[in-house]
Description:
2 domains, 6 helices, elongated, PepSY domain-containing protein, transmembrane, PepSY-ass_TM, membrane
Amino acid sequence: MNVNSKRAEQARVLRIVRKVHRALGASLFLLFLVISITGLLLGWKKNSEWIQAETATGSSGELSNWLPMDSLYKQACRYLQDSVYAGLSVKLDKIDLRADKGVAKFIFSDHFWGIQVDGATGQLLKIEQRRSDFIEKIHDGSIVDMKLLNGGDLFKLIFTSVSGLALLGFTITGFWLWYGPKRMRR
């Protein structure tokens, strides 16, 4: 193969790569915009009380002084329904125990409210809107599964697969757009 035909072939490949890179960018612009904004917010969550509420401090970090977990859960449910809205689901997603702070955080699965109670007394310490959980669900696409598809994780799986493959595609084509012209100059 002579030098001119080799160079022409490299230029043709470079044009194809540029078209793929441009098409990926144009078609996935909103996806990457959402992922980047929510990623930035999640990165700042520990430094912003608006995004993630500060953990309150209870009266005792000694677990042997704590009330039974079912009692704490019942208290948290009562506080949630009395203070936020009586019709809210009390279906539990997880309990975040912070023994060093003497607090149990009850996080519910059907909405973005959390209740922090004193582990030893069961007293309400904080009612929090869990904005960081909401942002995380937008970030990974699971908000669609939660709100529109009644649970599961099919949309999240598709969303993260498309995002990951697109990022891989951008990385490869971006590298080639940088390296291809250098290679042609040789």
